[in-house]
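== Sequence and structure of one protein ==
=== Format: two labelled lines per protein ===
==== Data for this protein ====
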Amino acid sequence: MRVLHVNKYLHRRGGAEAHMLDLAAAQRRAGHEVALWGMAPADTREQPGDPGVLHGVLAPALELEPPPPGAAARVRAAASTVWSVPAQRAMAAALERFSPDVVHCHNIYHQLSPSVLAPVRRRGVRAVMTLHDYKLVCPSYQMLAGGRPCQGCVRPGLAGPLQALRHRCKGSLGASAVVAVESTLHRAGDAYGSLAALVAPSRFLADVLARAGVGDGRVHVVRNPVGLVPAERLVPAADRRGLVVAGRLSPEKGVDVAVRAMAHLPGAHLVVAGDGPARADLEALAARVAPGRVRFTGRLPAPEVEALVTGAVAVAVPSRWYENAPLAVTEALVAGVPPVVSDLGGAPELVRDGVDGLVVPPEDPAALAAALRRLLVDPAAAGRMGAAGRERVAREHDADAHVRRLEEIYSGAATPEPAPVRAPSRRRASARG
């Protein structure tokens, strides 16, 4: 089968790009012909390295952050996020060159826009899309407003996207208006209606889509594939020490909850791997509540993060937002280390509470501390949880099985799994909306 993957960025920039590139490699191993198409790199440091990139017919680079200078340029950039004629033309040329059997979209918002689906539809090519975030429902991607979980947009019809204006979920009224208008026009015009299937990595995301009336009869829940840490790099449970938080240091990640939990864990040590806008505040907080017991490493290469995780008793994932399929959780599971996660979004689906990790209420340092203490005082039990999680993720997130499942979705042989329409649980609901 000839598969064309479409994403605005083609270098290893974030989770969506890593997923696409690893999936393309797995599909090639399975015998498929795979090509990649997206936006031309704006920077020489962003040169895509995948051999299947369709150079010469890529969409022109479009930089939106920071916004281009000048009012006219900003208006043109905003208009292109609704419908990009240059990206549409470039996609037509890519289809002419590669002639795919299926087009698999990932993050096409803003820089490419759903305009790229028009030539795919005209050629009669089947198109599917993996959803790496909540953009089809929430104009700001994250279901966050004012740094807090928000479900204001999770409602059918055009009233949903317009909640971005009410909550100013992009900060300023102007920025919120741009994304609200964009999403409203896309929903009104059924811009993503030609997609034959939507792939959701979590049941939570599938449920959000159902409650918003998006993608009815087209949603498939397919867990993201992961690779296990090789057995020779695992650390015996008896030799593991301390706790780890790994990821971007931004408010929604809740790293401050983990730091405050350390005040309830005298003698315990926490390593925070990552960087971001909240780092300075977190360092100041750690100096107040747990002096000398929280170490900040900054951003580290993947092998060093793996070494930290495999050597820890537990990994804390104290998010205060609806993470879809958090990488920090699966990174712990593939290393045989139990994660302790907030009961929000898709994270609890990855952890069987008390079996291969622990689930705690969000925004509760004392509850997080109690869960971490349970693992620290009984490293053997923590080791058993980690082993159970590793066995489960090997079975349910196998890369080859993921490729086979996608083959069924590509061909139309897979049966959609619509999420039940139900009210969110008390813990997972938001006070907003």
Observations:
- The CA atoms of residues 295 and 373 lie 19 Å apart.
- The chain has a mean pLDDT of 93.
- The first strand starts at residue 2 and ends at 6.
- The chain has two domains: 2-226+401-411, 231-396.
